[in-house]
Amino acid sequence: MLNPAAAARRALPSLDRLLSSAAVTALIAEYGRSRVTEILRHALDAERERLALPDTAWDEPQFLHSCTTSLKQGSEPSLKPVFNLTGTVLHTNLGRAVMPKKAAEAVMAAMTRPVNLEFELSTGGRGERDSHVERWLKQLTGGEKAVAVNNNAAAVYLALNTLALKREVLVSRGELIEIGGAFRIPDIMARAGVKLVEVGTTNRTHLKDFAEAITPRTAAIMKVHTSNYVVQGFTATVLEPDLAKLAHEHKLPFIVDLGSGTLIDLEQYGLPHEPTPRETLAHGADVVTFSGDKLLGGPQAGLLVGRRDLMVRIAKNPMKRALRLDKLTLTALDAVLRLYLHPERLHEELPALQLLTRKAEDIAAQAKRVLPQVAAALGDTWRVEITACKSQIGSGALPVDVMPSSGLAMTPAAKKKTDVGLLATAFRALPVPVIGHIKDGAFVLDLRCLDHEDEFISQLPQLRLK
Hints:
The chain is an alpha/beta fold and about 475 residues long. It has three domains: about 5-75, no CATH class; about 85-90 and about 355-460, Aspartate Aminotransferase, domain 1 (Alpha-Beta Complex), CATH 3.90.1150.180; about 100-350, Type I PLP-dependent aspartate aminotransferase-like (Major domain) (Aspartate Aminotransferase, domain 2), CATH 3.40.640. Helix content is about 40%, strand content about 15%. The protein has 20 helices and 15 strands. The protein has helices at about 5-10, 15-20, 20-30, 35-50, 60-75, 100-110, 130-140, 150-165, 185-190, 205-215, 240-250, 275-280, 310-315, 320-325, 325-340, 345-350, 350-355, 360-380, 420-430, 455-460, and strands at about 85, 145-150, 170, 180, 185, 195-200, 220-225, 255, 285-290, 300-305, 380-395, 395-410, 435, 435-440, 440-445. The protein has a seven-stranded mixed sheet, sandwiched between helices. Helix 7 packs parallel to helix 15 (about 325-340). The two termini are about 45 Å apart.
């Protein structure tokens, strides 16, 4: 007579029998035979081990439910939309700028049909892919020529590698920035094949420091906009026009990396001033680099504008092909740049600008609307209160400037050290994950970037608190 464990294992169906069942046939139609077979085989192996334990029995419905859950979870994309309620508008880890509707529509068209990416319609010959955005960049910045690559670090690399390979570039010590992910200007310069010459001190650099550092091996003078930090106190920096004059007296190109970069004067929208490529070129810069996915509000891209002869050389660098933009990014960038041709409508159509300039009273009103639904979803074990927040721009732009906002602060009624962290995890586990931050023992949702309010509220009943 079989012992109970052996009898339980004997009740297991064969893999072939399961594959021919109606329930599994439906799974095969949805997920594919090879994937379903793999999941079933591993699940049967685990089931045999489980049934070796006492007081266990074969439960086919539960087994198939578990396999279906594994198939569903294993087929979900890892890249998914989230609610960015962190208080950082251009959040690097959450994709930075949200694309405008016109850019999304243009990308969809480019995805589903052939496009004239490198085809000149007027002549029928080969075209240049950068031409689709170059005309707008020239118009919006005043540059004589423009080049587009996949991010601003690549733009800096390409400019230096082209104009200063195996030679020296002068940079103030106070501008040797590090951006997210521990990427540093000195490292990029080294990879570009140029020698960094540090000028001045961390807090004070003078024009004479640059003048005294120029040698026959000097290839360029570079200024880096410290967009992600501020040095305050006893400081001195050299103005762009003065550096440009010095560089040109020695027949050297003057390169400026603006980092985040914006094409408009943000002060007209009540935001602090951030230098634009047009201003920098007017100050005498020969090449200016900046990002497309930060303050500009477009897709990830590195943009170079400036003097024609230098830009032609940069465009011909063999590494340009390795760093070039694909058709979808170019399409999105083209659509975003065209919005800037109508500045009077920009606030209505560019999501990044809308979020940055959102009125504090509108955010406060939204907090009052959503508080009851959040409180109901959490129950009486949590306190939910409206709290004043200070949003930041993010992505290395205007690091010390904040914008007044409102949010919801959630604290446990019975305080436990792990409660708030578990609540943050529960919000991240929602169908559309909600990303907030923990501050002073509370889980806080800054509502400045809360769009799709109805969707946010509708999924709150699915919040699972452990």
